[in-house]
Amino acid sequence: MSPQYSLHVLFIAGTRPEVIKLAPVLKAFALKDGVRVELCAAGQHKELLEQAFADFALSPEYRLDVMQPGQSLASLSGRLFHAFDRLLNDVQPDWVVVQGDTTSTMTAALCAFYKKIKVAHVEAGLRSHSLGAPFPEELNRRVTGIVADLHFAPTPRAQANLLQEGTPAERIKVTGNTVVDALRWIEKSCKDTNTLPRAIQELLQSGKRIVLVTGHRRESFGEGFKAISTAIRRLADQHVNTVFVYPVHLNPNVRKPVEELLAGHERILLLEPLSYKAFITLMKVCTLILTDSGGVQEEAPSLGKPVLLMREVTERPEGIEAGTTKLVGVDADQIEKEVSTLLDSPEALVAMTSVANPFGDGQASERIVAAIIEYKP
Ligand code: UDP
């Protein structure tokens, strides 16, 4: 390392949400003197990752080319282990910063551990307490937590989970979730709807209400996505003043059933994944959100939008306790009933908009950067 740097930090991002949630931390770090900050695109996602880099004007110093069509989790993990091993040999950072619960996160953390490089885990301590959901993310997050030197817990509940597992208290910092920092950063450029695709602008001009839909979870592949799509189609048939806008994830396990079951309906708009700026603008103008996403659950309360969560369990119960999120599972009848209740009752909608976001206050990145700089083993 060049002598003008006293600290060398390598960020690893393999998927879209990792880029979004690490971008504010990386930007805050880059403002500090004497710190060399680098970014590795682990390539677990390809196009979605590049789109997210563009959103935050980031250009990674390192890119791993690991993604293969139809890859199994084991083969992806194997390629990531090899690639991170070589990368860390070459780069030799003081810290590896990983985020959340992906296969990239888990493999990068383990490779850093093997080389005695310190690991900072952003968004640590979330637990569904079920290894089956989110799958395999619950396992990935737990494994990363075993080797992390610093655990950045977004909420007191995440901190409590870590303490209960025996993590030393001085290694845990409660910071808030960095997604709120990212949201605040991008929101400044989301003031008007001109950045939205033309089809959505036309919907807004015609006075239609929008239900925003996202879904990509592995545990819903197959029957789950069929049920979700069935529910959306039935809802679109019934609610003539509402359009269901769905930026469809690029995973073929998602795209195939969604396109087969939902394409061609006049009140269902299937879109390519949106830029972060366009997506947040769309969140701001929608009536409610039907999703299985982790990040969207955390962003929605800041924008006062109710979330119906298409999962059986969540590692983010704070939103449910605050009343901004409701678990609706992946059962077609249940999804249909819960969405209809909100669309038909303004009171029910208002009851699900909270004043304070339980996931963060927008200052998480500064807290994380300070803790890494001040770290004493
Ligand atoms: N997002 C986006 N464009 C889209 C859909 C989602 O930028 O078309 C953002 C969203 O605001 C959130 C993140 O991507 O910050 C969520 O990613 P995803 O649902 O893929 O992953 P998860 O959060 O479930 O891990």
Apparent shape? globular
Rg, nearest Å: 20 Å
**How does the helix and strand content classify structurally?**
alpha/beta
Poorly predicted residue ranges = none
Strand order within the widest beta sheet: 3-2-1-4-5-6-7
Question: Ends: how far apart?
Answer: 21 Å
The share of residues in extended strands comes to 15-25%
Distinct ligands, ions and cofactors found in the model: uridine-5'-diphosphate
Major sheet description? 7 strands, parallel
Let me know the number of strands: 13
Order of helices and strands: EHEHEHEHEHEHEHHEHEHEHEHEHEHHH
- CATH-defined architecture of the largest domain: 3-Layer(aba) Sandwich
Total helices: the number is: 16
Helix content: 40-55%
CATH third-level topology of the largest domain: Rossmann fold
- How many distinct domains? 2
CATH homologous superfamily heading of the largest domain: Glycogen Phosphorylase B
Q: How is this structure best described in words?
A:
It is a single chain. The chain has 377 residues and is α/β, with parallel strands linked by helices. It folds into 2 domains: 7-177 and 361-373, 3-Layer(aba) Sandwich (Rossmann fold); 198-353, Glycogen Phosphorylase B (Rossmann fold, 3-Layer(aba) Sandwich), CATH 3.40.50.2000. The chain contains 16 helices and 13 strands. It has helices at residues 16-30, 47-55, 73-91, 103-114, 137-147, 156-164, 178-187, 198-205, 223-238, 252-262, 276-285, 294-299, 318-322, 332-344, 346-351, 364-374, and strands at residues 7-13, 35-41, 62-63, 95-99, 118-122, 150-153, 172-174, 209-214, 242-247, 268-271, 288-291, 307-309, 325-327. It has a 7-stranded parallel β-sheet, sandwiched between helices. Strands 10-9-8-11-12-13 form a 6-stranded parallel β-sheet, with helices on both faces. Helix 10 (252-262) links the parallel strand 9 (242-247) and strand 10 (268-271). Helix 4 (103-114) packs parallel to helix 5 (137-147). The two termini are 21 Å apart. The chain binds uridine-5'-diphosphate. Uridine-5'-diphosphate is lined by residues 16-17, 20, 179, 214, 216, 247, 273-274, 276, 279, 293-296, 299.
